[in-house]
Amino acid sequence: MNQERSKKTQEKLLVAASQVFHTQGIANTTLQDVARASGVPLGNVYYHYKTKNDLVHAVIQAHKADIQAGFDLVQENPDPKERLMVFIQNGRKNKLTLQEYGCPYAGIAYDLEKEKNPLAEEAGSLLEMWIEFAQQQFTLLGKAKEAKELAETYITTLQGAYLLAHNSGAKQFLERQLNRLELWLKAQ
Amino acid sequence: MNQERSKKTQEKLLVAASQVFHTQGIANTTLQDVARASGVPLGNVYYHYKTKNDLVHAVIQAHKADIQAGFDLVQENPDPKERLMVFIQNGRKNKLTLQEYGCPYAGIAYDLEKEKNPLAEEAGSLLEMWIEFAQQQFTLLGKAKEAKELAETYITTLQGAYLLAHNSGAKQFLERQLNRLELWLKAQ
Amino acid sequence: MNQERSKKTQEKLLVAASQVFHTQGIANTTLQDVARASGVPLGNVYYHYKTKNDLVHAVIQAHKADIQAGFDLVQENPDPKERLMVFIQNGRKNKLTLQEYGCPYAGIAYDLEKEKNPLAEEAGSLLEMWIEFAQQQFTLLGKAKEAKELAETYITTLQGAYLLAHNSGAKQFLERQLNRLELWLKAQ
Amino acid sequence: MNQERSKKTQEKLLVAASQVFHTQGIANTTLQDVARASGVPLGNVYYHYKTKNDLVHAVIQAHKADIQAGFDLVQENPDPKERLMVFIQNGRKNKLTLQEYGCPYAGIAYDLEKEKNPLAEEAGSLLEMWIEFAQQQFTLLGKAKEAKELAETYITTLQGAYLLAHNSGAKQFLERQLNRLELWLKAQ
DNA sequence: AATGAATGAGATTTCATTCAT
DNA sequence: GATGAATGAAATCTCATTCAT
Prior knowledge:
Oligomer: homotetramer
Structural class of chain A: mainly alpha
Number of domains of chain A: 2
Mean pLDDT of chain A: 95
CATH superfamily of the largest domain in chain A: Tetracycline Repressor, domain 2
CATH topology of the largest domain in chain A: Tetracycline Repressor, domain 2
Largest interface: A-B, 38 and 38 residues
CATH class of the largest domain in chain A: Mainly Alpha
Radius of gyration of chain A: 18 Å
Number of helices of chain A: 10
Strand content of chain A: under 5%
């Protein structure tokens, strides 16, 4: 009933906000934009999220949940190396979005840091989740000692590749760097 | 005379704008901010740059000149590999700024792309200059065939490292990735 | 409800804007002026009309509707000649306003043309509506062949009289020219 | 020497100002516009005219002188009726300018009246000069009693025709009304 | 509770006028 | 005296947030 309706509205807001924050950046996104994108009337946005920052916070939490869900999913694969391969493959699948808008997690963290938003740290944890996850996988691969640096290398390459793919128009760039990362990963 | 006075004011504006655009992001920076940071009265900013975008454009051009000057400077070193080493070393020197504010060139390109600013492409060329430069060096090293991919790898690593260093608080992160890049470069 | 509230505000804005545009000219009228004259807070003006030009456009449309309503009203009179007489009589009724501020339709068209406003053409149609209307009446009077020129003469005289009445202080000027026009019209 | 140079600069300013005031309207014309159009540096404009209004005043005076010069010129023609014909012919000669920008004298008077400029009255005298002149000619034609009304009719028609020609795009409009005025004048 | 309208602080921009050399 | 630069008040426009129904 009402609670369900409320849930749905909140869900619509989160989905729309994630999207427009990603594609336009947070500073360039008005709550009107979010309202329009979600089909929720502006006044109603404030019913669910008292401030723009509250909505940003909710989006970050949703991202965290998404990321964790992704980790949970690949846990079904018993091979830690293959788990890491999955995310390289995801990069290929999302190539067009990544080229056009960059990595959403890096983007939100960057945006908030620039506006000295207190949520910046929270957003920063989005990429840190990846490092931790990667580190765990390398540890499982029997490389406990170098796991941290390997994880950092893995994420650095992914993020560097996303950044450059987003920055430049070079169509094959992302593909080439993902291939290289894959080879490197296989060699570990 | 007047021309000198004008040059000086414009220089002050460019320096201040580069700085605040880098530290706050373009969208979060008002021309009042630039005016204050430069000591130039707001009305006068518009005498020198008719719009905020004109100022942004001038900053991009200044960045291009700076980058080119850096390339020219390292040309004095006859060894292409050492030239590329120089910029790794620069990353170490600028560690604190990079950690706190990220790479200014990537930042301005990202900001403009998000606000669908027509200058985005121009800003994107800032990183492309690096790729080209690196490619030339690898070519000089007798690796013409792989030069492009090597250059991309070099820049991807640098930018990935800057991005993650900026994102996370991890103090040794940048150092570790720069060291790794250095080893990789030596091995080429 | 909300829609009614909105209509009312928009109506207040239109009425106030028509008036101040007429009395001060468009270029000399700030939206603060309109806000004050209408009792609507400045920020809210922009809720209803996204730009000053949008408001100007709405005022032109309102003028068109007013003019058309005037035409519809005189259609009740079966004699085309008398219909045209009505507007001469209207000139007498509005003598003071016309002397002090000129013809609002000519004024808005002139203002927009001078500022190279794209709406200038739209505003120009205000006077063209009068020519067309007059032409129709002369056609109904059995003067289809000369109707166009007669209509132009009718409007030229009216507008010339309004212009001069507005320009000079001569109190009887408008009266004299309207009388002359009336005689001319009777003779057709 | 210097005085001559000053005269020349002042002349350049007057010519340029007359022109841009006419084509853009006074409110839409900045002193930068005048400076650029005249080739005189902005700072120098203020050396010759302490305020924008001073320049407007000078332009009005120049217009007065021009008009008077026109009157003086046609005095060479012994026939008062032909003198009035000359100005109808002038309307034909200046057709394109009149269609595109309207009558400069009516325009400046209108502009100043709208901005409640104290010079409005002074500008209003520009058209009054025409009425007086026309009245004199009709008096010379032995129509002393009706001279005033005939003069008003003459100017009303001219100004009405200019206004409508400026307002609408109708290419033949001005021609038709000037022909009609000519016939009317011949019949007097 | 739901929502279109209202509000006000602040951002960009313009420009007549003054300043400094 | 001549002139490019500087100034500040004011205009247009934006938008997070609050209000009123």
